[in-house]
Amino acid sequence: MKTQAINRLYLLKIFTGMTVILFILSFALNQFAYGAGTSSSSSSSKSESAAEKRERANEYFEEGKKLQEKWNYKKAAKKYERAVKIDPSYAEAYSNLGYTYRKQGKFDKAVRCYKNAIKLKPDLAEAHEYLGETYAEIGKFDLAEKELAILRQLGSDEADKLSEFIDKTKKN
């Protein structure tokens, strides 16, 4: 009888141990499955439509414009950086970001931004004008003249502004 009681006690301990192990395993698997099924902010942005991205990016773009108008180029740049991070196809945001970099004396960054803007929107006259002005400021007048030719080919009023800027910069 004593052996039978020991066997029952032994079986009860084994059953309890197995139950605990199964509970821990099911909890761990549940956590793993939940983690695999949840989306992070980066993957949720993938499901966001292009229009939604542009709308969110435009909020930062508008904030950047307000700061830029107050000559606060450093803070404006942060807003434009955020806009292009949200919507990498936002040519105007790249152009304005380039402008704020240029005003801070960060000419290499400015050129890269203007080129990105032009790559996205080849007829964005503002980007061509500002790229030409940047080239003129750093003494690359041949490249500035190329941007001027593009503006004239586009039939843009920005061509006159760039032409004046190049002439004025050459005199200094």
Poorly predicted ranges: 36-45
Major beta sheet, specifics? none
Class from helix and strand fractions: mainly alpha
Counted beta strands = 0
Give the overall average pLDDT.
86
* Helix content range: over 70%
What distance lies between the first and last C-alpha atoms, to the nearest angstrom? 111 Å
Strand content: under 5%
The gross shape turns out to be rod-shaped
What string gives the helices and strands in order?
Answer: HHHHHHHHH
The total count of helices amounts to 9
- Radius of gyration over C-alpha positions, nearest whole angstrom: 31 Å
Brief account:
With 172 residues, the protein is mainly α.
Description:
The protein has 172 residues and is mainly alpha-helical. It contains 9 helices and no strands. The protein has helices at 2-37, 41-46, 50-69, 73-86, 91-103, 107-120, 125-137, 141-154, 158-171. The longest helix has 36 residues, at 2-37. It is rod-shaped and about 110 Å long. The N and C termini lie far apart (111 Å).
What does the secondary structure layout of this molecule look like, with pairings?
Elements: H1 2-37, H2 41-46, H3 50-69, H4 73-86, H5 91-103, H6 107-120, H7 125-137, H8 141-154, H9 158-171
Helix pairs in contact: 3-4, 4-5, 5-6, 5-7, 6-7, 7-8, 7-9, 8-9
Descriptive keywords:
172 residues, mainly alpha, 9 helices, rod-shaped
